[in-house]
Amino acid sequence: MPQTHEQFVRRYGGIYENSAWVAEETYATAADVSDAGHLARVFASCVDEAAHDRKLTLIRAHPDLAGKAAIAGDLTEESTDEQSSAGINQCTPEEYAQFQLLNAQYREKFGFPFVMAVRNSNRGDILRAFAQRLENDDETEFATAIDEIHKIARLRLEAIN
After folding, report:
1. 32 vs 92, more confident
2. Cα–Cα distance measured from residue 77 to residue 61, given in angstroms and rounded to the nearest whole number
3. Is 158 part of any domain?
4. Would you state the pLDDT for residue 72?
5. Residue 52 is among the residues annotated as catalytic for this protein
6. Which residue among 33, 55, 66, 84 is buried most deeply as judged by most CB within 10 Å?
């Protein structure tokens, strides 16, 4: 049964963090697609074709890992599940302090939050990736953040399809 625009956006609007525009703009070409892999490619193409400023806004829609939003319980349900799956909600005080320091350094250097598809990772993996990616130049890190966002989207699609 075909989905209405509203049903499609309701179902897929959260695939890209706080960025329902991806589902809205792909409805015409993806409304009848049920395969998660195919949907992921359609959604990724929409993002990849977006203007730089729109991509930057998409990156900035992501929360800091172990950040204030997580502590306050203000994450989306998807982000909460993803961070919990990696054990971020169980940080030691030292790990928490390290996340806060790296979040601040990363935001200062790049102007957006560190984004990583953390499902199937652990705190150590994430902290190592954080430190490594701080060495990237702006262009490389922007592209890496978008690639990680696409990975998050694929995992979210697989979870609901």
Report:
1. 32
2. 14
3. no
4. 47
5. no
6. 66
